[in-house]
Amino acid sequence: MKKIPVTAAIRFLRAHQIDFEAREYDYIPHGGTAQSAKTLGVDEHQVIKTIVLMDENRKGLIMLMHGDCEISTRNLARQIGAKHIEITTPEQANKFTGYLVGGTSPFGTRTPLPIYIQKSIADLDTIYINGGKRGLLVVMQAHDLNILQPTWIDAIA
């Protein structure tokens, strides 16, 4: 059996005794959740993307969404009471999280960031979410995302 990479995300999940299974796939730059879902043979709606953003004060935050959904930064800003929200540059995302874009996980980030999650993710039993390395997803129960102490918000597209 192939040994899985030990990332900060994997260490976080283990430390918090969250049941998960690591699944590796061939990472393709800009392939996104469509690529990982296709490679793993799962519905893209179950693949959760981690988006790193910042508000008008340059404070970081993370939004977790279904892979087949699009983000509206305007709607997100309105829902969380921010004046302006924008997606960070890959360099800024790395500074906030310690992860490379394409391998960003909400678990074990370098800087603790507020986490917002699309409410409908809670309706799923099983989700696939980045394990902290390009080409690595973890399969886990959606309710285990509560370990992140998130704010669950309505669809934002």
Strand composition percent: 25-35%
- Low-pLDDT runs of 5+ residues are none
* Number of structural domains: 1
Spell out the helices and strands N to C.
Answer: HEHEEHEHEEEE
Give an overview in words:
By secondary structure, this protein is an alpha/beta fold. It has one domain (8-153): YbaK/aminoacyl-tRNA synthetase-associated domain (YbaK protein, Alpha-Beta Complex). Helix content is 21%, strand content 28%. The chain has four helices and eight strands; from the N terminus they run H-E-H-E-E-H-E-H-E-E-E-E. The chain has helices at 8-15, 32-40, 73-80, 90-97, and strands spanning 21-24, 47-55, 60-66, 85-87, 115-118, 126-133, 136-141, 151-153. Strands 1, 2, 3, 4, 5, 6, 7 and 8 form an eight-stranded mixed sheet that branches. A hairpin with a 2-residue loop joins strand 6 and strand 7.
Give a quick rundown of the structure.
The protein is an alpha/beta fold. It has a single domain, classed as YbaK protein (Alpha-Beta Complex), CATH 3.90.960. The chain is 21% helix and 28% strand.
List keywords for this structure.
single chain, 157 residues, YbaK protein, 8-stranded mixed sheet, 4 helices, 8 strands
